Amino acid sequence: MDERIREHARTLVDWSARVERGDDIVVSVDEGAHDLAVAVCAELGERGASVVTTYSSAELDRAYLRAHDGDFVASDAELALYERADVVLRLGGPRNTTATADVAGDRQAAYARVHQPAREARLDTRWVSTVHPTRALAQQAGMSFEAYRDFVYGAVLRDWEALAAEMAQLKELLDAGREVRLVTERDARPDTDLIMSIEGRVAVNSAASVAYDSHNLPSGEVFTAPFDTEGEVFFDVPMTLQGQRVRNVWLSFEEGAVVDFSAETGEDVLADVLDTDEGARRLGELGVGMNRGIDRFTDNVLFDEKMGDTVHLALGRAYHSNFREGDEDQANDSAVHMDMITDVSERSRIEVDGDVVQRDGRFRWEPEFEAA
Amino acid sequence: MDERIREHARTLVDWSARVERGDDIVVSVDEGAHDLAVAVCAELGERGASVVTTYSSAELDRAYLRAHDGDFVASDAELALYERADVVLRLGGPRNTTATADVAGDRQAAYARVHQPAREARLDTRWVSTVHPTRALAQQAGMSFEAYRDFVYGAVLRDWEALAAEMAQLKELLDAGREVRLVTERDARPDTDLIMSIEGRVAVNSAASVAYDSHNLPSGEVFTAPFDTEGEVFFDVPMTLQGQRVRNVWLSFEEGAVVDFSAETGEDVLADVLDTDEGARRLGELGVGMNRGIDRFTDNVLFDEKMGDTVHLALGRAYHSNFREGDEDQANDSAVHMDMITDVSERSRIEVDGDVVQRDGRFRWEPEFEAA
Fold first, then answer.
1. How far apart are CA B269 and CA A124, in angstroms?
2. Is B54–A51 a contact, with Cβ atoms under 8 angstroms apart?
3. Are residues B115 and B239 both part of a single domain?
4. How many CB pairs under 8 A join A and B?
5. How many angstroms separate the Cα of B115 from the Cα of each of A356, B74, B88, B104, B144?
């Protein structure tokens, strides 16, 4: 076995999920994640945790959803499983990222609604989602399998303690700040100049560990919940939304809401998202990607939005973790949470209350930071 | 997809497990059983059942068991899962039938003990175990993959209703009978002449359906719980026990217990089994294989013991289903249940209370039965 798979498992179990003796663990194994599951089970055995393994397969889901008449009934057994679990480790690893392409969207949505209590019970555990590299994911990224594996382990096997300490500096600035301004200057493309309020919000230091209220491995971002957004923003990183490619999205905000928009590709999908509900036109998240182990876009938001030298904004639902206790009702509410990413490695700056904290992808605590 | 996989799934869901709308189903998917799981999920979706899928992997078990210090704690989450389930469908399909060969037996036994409550909760559901043909099982059978698949579907895709009706005739004879005599006459090998009491016992018509208290697909046997065994018996079908090949076992019984034994190969394993406990020297089961779709031995007891024209006897634990309500305490008790098979297709007879009910593999209700 590739030694990196063992390291991945150790990082997941120790750094991310903080597994202890006697913990009751559900390991969810995707079709292509068997090898990582073997390594994870060895780590869990060594720590004296209890394990039950579930099977996650898009092909099984497709078969079930297509055959069903749509009048779904929730599984009490599944709910009970998650209610009793201390930790849920989700090992992603699809063998075909478009395996459910021919399942009607409303069928999937109806199943998701019935499934909601089990999902909430799962989110009440010390859950962590990670990804085992598969050929299907390599293909989605447009990469060879070997290069993709190198990419995944480059993103996952970080010095998380050091990254958490670095990210804490940005969290501190955002927690103390009232306003963030994002500016990019590009030739022949719409520029970005966006001002967002963040006063009273709590930034999350997403360091790929439940100890930081961070549930993805890899992670490596600091995010907060902006409001009263004004200005324009352009997203130059392509994404796949509802199975369609969406490129070069431009949004114009007034009084916190989108008042105009365009996209070079997939404008209809974008329009659909914006029309979902009232909250879909407002921002739910401002995130700053700080994982420099992620050095390219791979058409997988789990990785893309954590890439160093990027900023992402999400339309729709805000995370309650960005609000002080009692303030959660101020969180933007929506059925959607649509992440869009912009590259800030060049001719860009992030300001907090007028002070430049990042310029051209370099933070002010880095030696390469140009004071300008 | 091979249409036989869909037929297998339909047989499992309708004939075996009697799935109905709203049933809460756990589908346990073995490493190599994915394709059958897809077909099963389609059938379950069509019937409006709820589904949660677990992953069963000998490689995961091995990794966990070897890494653990042996002081196991049961998983409450797994127990809760099975306690809430109506049906558990176990789709076997190993990729390597010796995947746990290097896990110490006492480690496996310790885990099985801790796991016992979850196992019992599972056995309290309408559970069914079946097998998806894999290359590993073909290899264990000494067969090509294509021939093995034909073999499995020949065993599974029967006219179960007709077989159940035929087996009912043998059940009726055994339920009414007081004594079974098994005789085989072979040249140059120890002969069998064994007399067993069955008075007051209830024979099970194992027709591969929970409606018949039968939990294996394929099945096709009638079995009861014999006692007061006297005589000698020779088992000419090889078997694998604790990873070792055991051949040509001979047992001699007096007053219900083994008083002498031998085996051409694996005599030490046999001795170990007999020494397990008091009940290990007594019979727990007498079964008559009646599935003529199983036409060869494949070193897999799920199939071998149901083969037409065979009889199997098990040392050790008896099934409570063979006892009238209130009589269950008469069941032979043991930690082991070791099935051994003998070919009765030639120069053999089974008598009930002195009447020949089968001769040379033909039952008395069959036209080929020779009245002698």
1. 49
2. no
3. no
4. 154
5. 59, 6, 16, 17, 36
- Encoded amino acid at B17, one letter: A
The answer to whether residue A87 sits within a structural domain is yes
User: Considering CB atoms only, which of B26, B34, B43 is closest to A57?
Assistant: B34
Q: Please, are residues A110 and A70 in contact by the beta-carbon 8 Å criterion?
A: yes
A121, A156, A191 — which closes off a domain?
Answer: A156
Q: Which of B137, B156, B175 marks a domain boundary?
A: B156
Q: Are residues B22 and B56 in the same domain?
A: yes
List chain A residues with CB under 8 Å of B24: 75-77
Does any domain span residue B368?
A: no
Nearest to B220 by CA among B169, B152, B288, B286: B288
Closest-CA distance, A99 to chain B, in angstroms, reads 12
Predicted confidence (pLDDT) per residue in A92-108, tens digit: 999 999 999 899 888 98
Residue A371 covered by a domain:
no
At residue A248, the 3 state secondary structure works out as strand
Decide: A204 and A11 in contact? Cβ < 8 Å: no
Q: Looking at A189-314, list the stretches that DSSP marks H as alpha helix, in order from N- to C-terminal side.
A: 267-274, 301-304
Domain annotation covers residue A145: yes
What is the per-residue pLDDT across A110-169, written as a single tens digit (0 to 9) for each? 998 899 899 999 999 999 999 999 999 999 999 999 999 999 999 999 999 999 999 999
- Do B307 and B287 meet the contact criterion of CB atoms below 8 Å apart? no
Its pTM stands at 0.92
CA-based nearest residue to A226, from A183, A284, A173, A312: A284
Residues B318 and B290 in one domain: yes
ipTM: 0.91
Do A187 and A150 fall into the same domain?
Answer: no
Q: Could you tell me the CA-to-CA distances from A322 to A122, A176, A307, A317, B151 in Å, in that order?
A: 20, 13, 21, 12, 60
Give me the domain span that covers residue A69: 3-156
Instruction: Look at B45 and A56 and tell me if their CB atoms are within 8 Å.
Output: no
Which position has the token pair 């073909």?
Answer: B138
Co-location of B97 and B33 in the same domain: yes
Beta sheet of B310-316, edge-to-edge order: B204-206, B221-224, B283-289, B310-316, B337-343
The distance in angstroms from the start CA to the end CA of chain B is 49
pLDDT recorded at residue B372:
58
- CATH number of the domain that residue B98 is part of: 3.40.1830.10
Instruction: With CB atoms and an 8 Å threshold, state whether B60 touches A68.
Output: no
For tokens 């653990």, what's the residue? B68
Q: Which two tokens stand for residue A171?
A: 């969290």
Find out whether A109 and A48 touch, Cβ atoms under 8 Å.
no
Q: Among A66, A62, A29, which residue's Cα sits nearest to residue A44?
A: A29
Please check whether residue B182 is in contact with residue B347, taking contact to mean a CB–CB distance below 8 angstroms.
no
**What is the tally of structural domains in chain A?**
2
**Residue B319: what are its φ and ψ, rounded to 5°?**
-85, 135
Indicate if A233 and A312 belong to the same structural domain: yes
Q: What is the pLDDT of residue B294?
A: 96
Q: What are phi and psi of B83, to 5 degrees?
A: -65, -30
